[in-house]
Amino acid sequence: MGRIRTCIPSDSVIPMEKTQEEYEKQIAQFIRDFATLRQEVAKMIVGYEDVVEKVLICLFAGGNVLLEGVPGLGKTMLVRVLAQALHCHFRRVQFTADLMPSDILGTNMIVQQGGRRELVFQKGPIFTHLLLADEINRATPRTQSALLEAMEEHSVTVGAQTHTLEEPFFVLATQNPIEQAGTYPLPQAALDKFLFKLVVGYPGFADLEEIIRRTTQSKLPEIHRVMTREKVLEMSQLVREVPVSPHVERYAGRLVLASHPESPYATEMVKRYVKAGSSPRGIVGLLLGGKVRALLSGRFSVSCEDIRNVATSTLRHRVQLTFEGQAEEVPADRIVDDLVARTPEMEVAQSAA
Questions:
Q1: In angstroms, how far apart are the furthest CA atoms of the chain?
Q2: CB atoms < 10 A from the CB of 79, how many?
Q3: For the chain, N or C: smaller number of CB within 10 Å?
Q4: pTM confidence score
Q5: Torsion (CA) 105, 152, 155, 86 in degrees, nearest 10
Q6: What is the CATH number of the domain that holds 315?
Q7: What is the pLDDT of residues 146-169, one digit of tens each?
Q8: Does residue 125 contact residue 104 with C-beta atoms inside 8 Å?
Q9: Cα(82)–Cα(130) distance, rounded to whole angstroms?
C-alpha cells in the first residue's frame, strides 16, 4: 500500500481535534480493517466483488441494503458469512404472508412473578445488530411497515413505549424479482429507507467452477470473527468525519435533481421515462457512500468520482418509471447511467434568454 494521500480541499471544514498524522494513521487502519473483513467474506462468497464491497460500504456508512436477485445466487449466504465475520448479534427472519409485526418487533406479555401479574415486553428478533430480512416482499404491507421505524429511527415503539436499538443496527433484505406470485412489492416509502439497492447477477463460468470446488468438499472454509461491534462503530465515526467540499456537494445535489423530470437538470431520458425522482435521502446516500470510497482510496476528502462510484446503487430504486417507461421495460440503471454521464462536475451557467 502506497502513502496515504490526505488531500483536503481548502474550502472544506474538518475537525481540528486531530493532526494530519493521526488522520493518516486512521485512514491506513480503516483500509486494512476493510480489506481484512472483505477477505474473510471472500472465503465463502465467490465473485460478486462489487456487491460485497457495496454491502460493506453501506455497513460503515450506517445504512441498510436491499439485495435483489433470483434464488440460489448466495444472497442469504453473503449475510450469514458477514455475520460470522463480525463479532455482532445476528438474527434471520424468513418473511412470509402470515408473518405479523409482533413476530418481528416483539410484544407485551403478562408474566406471573411473585404472586403478581406484570406486563413484560418480550423482545423480537429485530433487537440485534445485523438483521437478515429474507424475501421481504413476501410479507404483507403491514408487516413490512413494522421495519420502517427501526430502519429510520433505530428504535421500536410497542404500545406506549419506545425501545432504542443497540448500535450498530444494520438491515440487509433480500427479494426475488422473478417469482411474483404471493408477493407484495415494496412501496416507494419502504424502498427509500434502503441506502443502497444491489442487483446480484449470475456468476461466470470460472466462478461456477470455484463455487463447486468450495461447496462440495468435505470441509467448508472456516470463517473467523475479525471485527467487533466497537470497531464497526469506530470506523463509522471516521466516515462521518470525512469532509466534503461545496463543489462536490453541489455535484451530488445536481445528480439528485437530474432524476426529477421537472428539474432544469433533467436529461431527455428522465423527462421521457421518469415519473418521480429521488428523495433527499438520495444525496445522503451519495455523500456517505462517497466518504467510504474516499477513505478506501486513501483520501480524506470526497471527489466527484467517489460520488459516481455509488450513484447507481443509491439512485436505481429511487427512480419511479412512467407508464411508457414500464411498457418499454427501460432499466432504472440505464436512466441513472445516462444522467450521471450527462451531469457535469461543475455547473454550467445558464445563458441569458
A1: 83
A2: 24
A3: C
A4: 0.85
A5: 80
A6: 1.10.8.80
A7: 888 788 888 888 877 888 888 889
A8: yes
A9: 9
